[in-house]
């Protein structure tokens, strides 16, 4: 493959002149003279236009699970484009790839989750959840069940419904969100909110908060609870033991649908195909995206239980929801091949038995650093908490913290891409990362912390 030669200075100029990147400050974009431009990637390494090789501790945006440079994914896209680049799945038409992918996903999900609706992004998947759940309750004869319970600091996307379901207050400011019918309860953030508490007591308190809110709203008005098995964008919040079983029991007690947002946790991230399998629960709906195609094509999926499908099938009405690109044949073909790679290379086992434990051990070395309050991971996702005083959960500069972005920038400068969430650094690397690269990631973080102390 011949790589294109880019005029980076010109691209940066055009970036400022014409391009509005996602989730960005346009003032900062202009002030720094344009975005960082990534031009190429291979394995677990990205290369920017200034010639820097950067180890990607974030798998792009929590998604490039099989790593960069997979020629067979490009080939399968090419073949599908030549055979049939597009046909829609509206009005009872379909093409082969989404049908085959739905059957494949049904096998991986198991149990009662045997039907799949396709979208192009995690946000759209959660919009589908929003309309599907309310439609379901309407058909069931309980149209007053409209309320969704979510957690503060959750991330469920950036569309109006996705950002409303999400619990990030700064995302609610723009656009006057959340829309009515979403209630946010406490997150199971042991380090942040249960620091001095016995973990079992904290867990019981977090589950109780959900039940209290259901009772306050009125159980007959609550439609669903939605949560990420491990909150990713909120800072890799790993719930305490027993939390998810507790949430499931509360949902069952009040007949509330349980939605697992697996956009990050799905496809092996926690060492099982899906996060709900790791936590031993049975959701009614599963949202997935990102690792579904390892980010090679935009595609997401919403899996639903047979009860939901049978309910929709009990009426003649169309489910009047869907996108032009629902079940896009090229995206579905790429996703199928991506899953085949994960299976063939036993990447889920690799996360659970090899790189997951190796990563946990490597991260644990950072626990001794005077600025680190906690280093935690599950499978191949993790975080470190930066604290102003060892032995506490006190941040630099107050609750939100100031140190995270400084340490993140120091990491990038040393050749490692990580993200800062408040005063924590989060990591979600590709499953192909080697032991040597994991060691390098941790030593760069240690050096960046030293530089900051
Ligand atoms: N849900 C979760 C758990 C996510 O982490 C994300 C994105 O990070 C989304 C939904 C939204 O996905 P997208 O950005 O593809 O719309």
Automatic annotation (TrEMBL):
Recorded GO MF terms: pyridoxal phosphate binding; transaminase activity
Organism domain of life: Bacteria
Keyword Transferase: yes
Cofactor(s), names only, from the UniProt record: pyridoxal 5'-phosphate
Keywords: Aminotransferase, Pyridoxal phosphate, Transferase
CDD domains per the UniProt record, alphabetical: OAT_like
Keyword Transferase belongs to the record: yes
Family membership: Belongs to the class-III pyridoxal-phosphate-dependent aminotransferase family.
Protein name, per record: Aspartate aminotransferase family protein
């Amino acid at each position: 493959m011949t790589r294109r030669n880019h005029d980076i200075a010109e691209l940066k100029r055009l970036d400022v002149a014409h391009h509005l990147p996602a989730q960005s400050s346009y003032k900062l974009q202009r002030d720094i003279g344009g975005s960082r431009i990534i031009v190429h990637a291979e394995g677990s390494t990205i290369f920017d236009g200034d010639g820097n090789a950067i180890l990607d501790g974030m798998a792009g945006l929590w998604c490039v699970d099989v790593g960069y440079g997979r020629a067979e994914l490009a080939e399968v896209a090419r073949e599908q484009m030549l055979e049939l680049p597009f046909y829609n799945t509206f009005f009872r038409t379909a093409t082969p790839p989404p049908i085959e992918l739905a059957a494949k996903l049904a096998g991986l999900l198991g149990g009662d989750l045997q039907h799949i609706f396709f979208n192009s992004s995690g946000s759209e998947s959660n919009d589908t959840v929003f309309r599907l759940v309310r439609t379901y309750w309407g058909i069931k004869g309980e149209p007053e069940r409209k309320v969704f319970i979510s957690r503060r600091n959750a991330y469920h996307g950036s569309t109006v419904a996705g950002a409303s379901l999400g619990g990030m207050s700064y995302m609610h400011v723009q656009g006057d969100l959340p829309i009515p019918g979403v209630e946010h309860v406490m997150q199971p953030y042991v380090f942040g909110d249960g620091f001095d508490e016995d973990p079992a007591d904290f867990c019981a308190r977090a589950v109780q908060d959900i039940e209290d809110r259901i009772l306050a709203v009125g159980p007959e008005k609550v439609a669903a609870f939605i949560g990420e098995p491990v909150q990713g964008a909120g800072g890799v919040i790993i719930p305490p033991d027993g939390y998810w079983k507790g949430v499931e029991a509360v949902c069952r007690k009040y007949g509330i649908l349980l939605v697992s947002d697996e956009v990050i946790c799905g496809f092996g991230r926690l060492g099982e195909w899906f996060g709900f399998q790791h936590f031993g629960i049975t959701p009614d709906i599963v949202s997935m995206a990102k690792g579904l195609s390892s980010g090679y094509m935009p595609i997401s999926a919403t899996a639903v239980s047979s009860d939901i499908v049978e309910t929709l099938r009990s009426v003649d009405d169309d489910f009047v929801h869907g996108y032009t690109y629902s079940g896009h044949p090229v995206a579905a073909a790429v996703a199928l091949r991506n899953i085949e790679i994960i299976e063939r290379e036993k990447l889920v086992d690799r996360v659970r038995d090899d790189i997951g434990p190796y990563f946990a051990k490597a991260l644990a070395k950072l626990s001794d650093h005077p600025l680190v309050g906690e280093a935690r991971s599950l499978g191949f996702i993790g975080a470190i908490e930066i604290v102003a005083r060892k032995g506490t959960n006190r941040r630099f500069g107050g609750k939100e913290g100031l140190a995270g972005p400084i340490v993140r920038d120091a990491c990038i400068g040393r050749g490692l891409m990580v993200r800062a969430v408040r005063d924590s650094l989060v990591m979600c690397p590709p499953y192909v990362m080697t032991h040597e690269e994991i060691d390098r990631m941790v030593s760069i973080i240690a050096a960046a912390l030293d530089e900051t102390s």
